[in-house]
Write a structure and sequence with these properties.
The chain has 324 residues and is α+β, with helices and mostly antiparallel strands. The chain has helices at 2-10, 20-41, 47-66, 88-108, 180-185, 190-198, 214-227, 236-244, and strands at residues 71-72, 120-131, 137-147, 154-158, 161-165, 172-173, 250-257, 263-269, 279-282, 289-297, 304-317. 34% of the residues lie in helices and 24% in strands.
Length: 324
């Protein structure tokens, strides 16, 4: 694997550091790639695996340099996370929150207007970032204009900085999908939704006990990213909450607070240590979804930040910089 790591070492160390949203997009490219190599190579070893790892590493470097959210969907390598020890009682508590969120959503939701492929999905979110050591707080208002079919340049803001996303190339796509036709194809049965995501749209009815440990995090990550899409077909968002409730290693985190200062309860995947502190936040009584909690480290590694965010507005527009 040393040749793949060289790709990362060769990336200019003086380049601007990745923001956490950009890092998440890069991580998804890597996850998406890793999901396929073992399927294509059988054992996950040999030249096929090395080539796939090299392509996956290159995808991460490309995202680091360009900030693009385009995903390569055909090559990659397998990787398994360290086994975790989920606590059944806590996992059941998380399922209570997530199933409650699904019930709340079904009571509130209506069939949204479907965006056309040539339009953009606009969203505005508030990010409240706290420097852990000093307690200094900064608040950012970030806006995004995402091409529905990924055929046009999209514009996003990350901590107040504008970043352009180039159109998707042939054979490329984005996750979560923005095209209404693709979103409508996603199953609304929780078990089938998990199967579709982990098998890249195919069918794989294996239970989590029969899957690699890494599939638990893959499921949590892909479902969590789907929830970030501000507009989904009626029924898909509650189905996504119910699917998350079935993922082993997802636990309830009490004592949370969202970016608006509201008291909440978190739901996080805790089997993989580096992802602690990153969670979805819900109202502790109604289970209404409130926002996200995340963490980031400065480029120097000396400062750590806690980020709280929530979407305050979204809509469908015809061009970049247009608002609903």
């Amino acid at each position: 694997m040393s040749d793949e790591l060289e790709l990362l070492r060769e990336w200019d160390a003086d380049a601007a550091p990745l923001t956490d949203p950009a890092r998440n997009r890069a991580r998804h490219r890597l996850l998406n790639a890793m999901a396929h190599a073992d399927q294509h190579t059988g054992t996950g070893t040999g030249t096929g695996r090395r080539r796939a790892l090299r392509l996956a590493a290159a995808a991460v470097v490309a995202t680091a340099v360009t900030g693009t959210a385009v995903l390569v969907g055909t090559d990659g390598s397998g990787e398994r996370g360290a086994p975790g020890t989920g606590t059944p009682r806590m996992e059941n508590a998380a399922a209570t929150v997530l199933n409650g969120a699904a019930a709340w959503e079904r009571e509130q939701e209506k069939e949204p207007v479907a965006p056309r492929d040539d339009q953009f999905i606009y969203s505005k979110r508030i990010i409240k970032e706290t420097e852990r050591k000093t307690g200094e707080v900064k608040t950012y208002t970030d806006e995004m204009w995402e091409s529905v079919d990924a055929s046009k340049r999209s514009l996003s803001m990350e901590l107040g900085r504008e970043m352009w996303e180039e159109p998707a190339g042939k054979g490329e796509g984005v996750w979560p999908p923005r095209k209404w036709s693709e979103l409508k194809k996603l199953p609304q049965d929780p078990e089938k939704l998990i199967s579709a995501l982990l098998s890249d749209g195919g069918s794989d009815d294996r239970s989590f006990s029969e899957r690699p440990e890494f599939d638990r995090f893959r499921a949590y990550f892909l479902l969590g990213e789907l929830l970030k899409n501000p507009v989904l077909p009626q029924g898909l968002r509650p189905a996504t909450y119910e699917a998350l409730a079935r993922v082993p290693g997802v636990e309830k985190i009490p004592g949370m607070q969202d970016s608006a200062g509201r008291r909440g309860v978190g739901v996080a995947f805790t089997e993989r240590g580096p992802y602690e502190g990153k969670c979805l936040i819900f109202d502790p009584a109604s289970y209404e979804f409130l926002g996200f909690r995340d963490e980031r480290t400065s480029a120097s590694g000396k400062k750590k930040y806690t980020q709280l965010s929530h979407v305050v507005e979204w809509g469908i527009v015809d061009r970049v910089k247009q608002r609903p």
